[in-house]
Each structure stands twice: as structure tokens, then as C-alpha cells.
Amino acid sequence: MRPEPDPVVSSVDPAEVARYTRLAERWWDPQGPFWPLHTLNRLRTAWIRDHLCQRLGRDAQAPRPLAGLSLVDIGCGGGLLSEAMARMGARVHGVDVTADNIAVARRHARDSGLDLTYEVGTAEALAHRGARYDVVLNMEVVEHVADLPGFMAACNRLQRPGGYGCIATLNRTPASFVAGILGAEYLLRWLPRGTHQWRRFRKPRELQALLARDGIRVAEATGVRVNPFTRRMTPSRSMAVNYMLMTHRPEGDVR
């Protein structure tokens, strides 16, 4: 009889772990293979800050607008987003399945004088031990996992009642195949070939259904436009290629 997959690690794709292990030492090179994430990080950081502050009644321009919030960054990689959130005052727990990524993230945080908690692990493992956070970040991760329903269920469990979540990914459309695969990986060579698998791109309605199953709703949404000439990224009404969602679990939902 074939053994059942371990629910704590079922979403992990070994091929993805191997890919990011090879690239781990390049995370903080703004001209290296992760330059698109460096560019995107400026946009997503401001978007997360502004919408969280709007909903929580905080001043987005304050020196530490996210002070006091507990935040988990699932699939934190080398810590680009985790550090940005920590600089805004959040208590950050960065989690990644690739040990080399966590080693790089810890080293960079230490050298930057930042106090973050990093851990090699999964969303499923955190959920299994009952962890809850004010903010759950799941950015550029869902297109890399092997078990989307299981992964989303774990992330949903991490979001406390009244808490918020953020998801960023690519839509599964003809436009995203042209821009995200042919353009970014083959023509412009912005990303290493094989970085993405189009069949794993996620439609917004698919994620919305997995969120609604656990009583979580989409509170904000935006597309992301990439200028191929300037490499600049800006918000867009179109979600046909890249998009971001902010989610909210109602205060009274204790499941």
C-alpha cells in the first residue's frame, strides 16, 4: 500500500528546493537572478504597508507603521521582504523550506543589525503547532508548491481572527504565458529558464475559493504591470499576468 504523504511537508516540491539551493547566495545581489524580486519588493512593501495601515487606522508615513504586529513571511527566501517588514516595526518570523536561503537570511539580518526570527520549515508545520499571526505573507510562493489546497489551508490557519494576509502570484492566462514564461525566461532572460511552470500559475478565483473555504475574504486586489524597457513595476487594474491580494479573517471567526 502506498503511504500517505506527510501533511506537514506535502506541499514541498524537491525540485524547487534544489533550484533555490543553487541560487541561494545570489539573493541580495540586485543585479543577479533575483533582480525582479528586488524591484517588486519596493512595490509590494509599499502596497502592504499602505493597505494594512488604512485598515488598522495607522499612519503609513510613520517611522515604524507596523510596530507591534506579529508577521510571518512564508517562503521568505533570503529575507528581502522580511527585512522590509522588520524595518517598519513588525515582529517578523521568516520561514522557508530551503536551508541555504535561511542561512543567507540570518547572515544578512545579523549584518544589518536587524532582529528577526528565521526558521527552516513549512506553513503546514507552523499550523500543526498552532501558530497564529496578525499578518501572514504568502508572496510569490503558491506557484511553486506541489499541493495548493493543503498549502493554502495551512496559511489560512495561521491567520488569527481579525488578522490579514497577503498573496502575490501569477495568473494562469495566455498573457501570463507570453509575459511570464516566453518573455521573462526566454526572450528577455530576466529569470533563469524553468523558474516557473505555467500550469502552476493560479487564477484569482481559485485562490478565492480556497480562502472562502476557511472563512477568509479578499479585501484588496491589484494587478502588477512590468515595463519591459525600464524594468519598472507599477500597480495595474489588469490582473491578467501578476497580481496581489490582501485577505481578512473576520474578528469573530475562531476556527
Question: What do these coordinates show?
Answer:
Keywords: Methyltransferase, S-adenosyl-L-methionine, Transferase, Ubiquinone, Ubiquinone biosynthesis. GO terms for molecular function: 2-polyprenyl-6-hydroxyphenol methylase activity; 3-demethylubiquinol 3-O-methyltransferase activity; polyprenyldihydroxybenzoate methyltransferase activity. The protein is α/β, with parallel strands linked by helices and 255 residues long. β4 (133-139), α6 (148-158) and β5 form a beta-alpha-beta unit. It has helices at 14-23, 35-56, 80-87, 99-112, 123-128, 148-158, 174-187, 204-212; strands at 70-74, 91-96, 117-120, 133-139, 159-170, 217-226, 233-236, 242-248. Helices cover 37% and strands 22% of the residues. The protein has a single domain, classed as Rossmann fold. The chain has an eight-stranded mixed sheet with strand order 3-2-1-4-5-8-6-7.
Uncertain residue ranges: 1-6
Second rung of CATH, namely the architecture:
3-Layer(aba) Sandwich
- Report, as a whole number of angstroms, the end-to-end distance: 34 Å
For the largest sheet, list the strands in their spatial order: 3-2-1-4-5-8-6-7
Overall morphology? globular
Number of strands: 8
Q: How many domains?
A: 1
Tell me the name of the CATH class. Answer: Alpha Beta
Structural class, by secondary structure, is alpha/beta
Mean pLDDT: 90
What name does CATH use for the topology? Answer: Rossmann fold
Largest sheet: 8 strands, mixed
Taken in chain order, the helices and strands follow as HHEHEHEHEHEHHEEE
| The CATH fourth-level homologous superfamily | Vaccinia Virus protein VP39
